[in-house]
Design brief:
Blueprint: H1 6-13, H2 16-22, H3 27-45, H4 51-56, H5 64-82, H6 89-107
Helix pairs in contact: 3-5, 5-6
Length: about 140
């Protein structure tokens, strides 16, 4: 089952998606843009949140904010691949806002209402950092 549905687009972008679809649109392009966006979001959330659970959810079980971020990233990728000259400023701003939030979550500066990674013993293991009492050495010659 796909994470993003056609109804998700109509909720967030009104006629904007139609403008994209009219010029050089194929289902393969939309699917590729969605996969790029999902992978992009996963890369930022991995290590802190259970991305498998997040993206396996369907319908009302999905996190609405993640759906919005994926759509914003998808539309940005579609515009850049199909008609970059006609990209509205709001698309660039929403994409940048999505990246900024994802970077904050990845750095631990923001907390998201998402399923955390749970270990075999049922304990939350997200956000574990491995450190050493020794200073790192630069071994370049």
């Amino acid at each position: 089952m796909q994470f993003i549905t056609t109804d998700d687009y109509s909720t967030l972008v009104r006629n904007e998606i139609k403008n994209i679809l009219l010029e050089n649109y194929t289902d393969a392009k939309l699917s590729a843009a969605e996969q790029m966006a999902i992978t992009q979001v996963k890369n930022y959330l991995t290590g802190r949140y259970d991305t498998q659970k997040i993206f396996e959810a369907s319908g009302a079980e999905r996190n609405a904010h993640i759906v919005m971020l994926v759509i914003d990233c998808t539309l940005y990728h579609l515009y850049t691949s199909v008609i970059p000259d006609k990209m509205p400023e709001i698309r660039s701003q929403r994409y940048q806002d999505a990246l900024d939030w994802l970077k904050m979550v990845a750095a631990g500066d923001a907390v998201a209402d998402l399923p955390k990674i749970i270990g075999n013993d049922g304990e939350d293991i997200s956000g574990i950092k491995i450190t050493s009492k020794y200073q790192s050495n630069n071994q370049r010659w």
